[in-house]
Amino acid sequence: MNTQRLMKILLAPIVSEKSTMLADKHEQIAFKVCSTATKHEIKAAVELLFKVEVDAVRVVNIAGKQKRFGRTIGRRSDTRKAYVALKAGQEINFSEAA
């Protein structure tokens, strides 16, 4: 896989109550990813950037909501989330990764 493509796959980590609970209980990390990314590319990107071993990747497509702005009707863009399960004993420290 192309290294430049892998660097553009992960857009941002998702930090919320739900994602923190997943990280504590199931050793999973949630990421906002590129809309064209595949599971294999997401796995390779996480392993390349954070130097950890990935066990599984789950991907969720989220449809954008329709919103009104005064008289006009707009639409939020579609997003894609990836839940990355790490192998036992693996951990991602975001402060060291930068």
Can you put this structure into words, describing what you see?
The protein has one domain: RRM (RNA recognition motif) domain (Alpha-Beta Plaits). It is 32% helix and 36% strand. The protein has four helices and six strands.
Envelope shape: globular
Order of strands, main sheet, comes to 1-2-6-3
**Discrete helix count:** 4
CATH architecture: 2-Layer Sandwich
Radius of gyration using CA atoms only: 15 Å
What is the number of domains? Answer: 1
Round the mean pLDDT to the nearest integer and report it. 92
Report the uncertain regions.
none
**Could you please say which CATH topology applies here?**
Alpha-Beta Plaits
Strand content: 35-45%
Q: For the record, what is the CATH homologous superfamily label? A: RRM (RNA recognition motif) domain
Number of DSSP E strands = 6
Helix content range: 25-40%
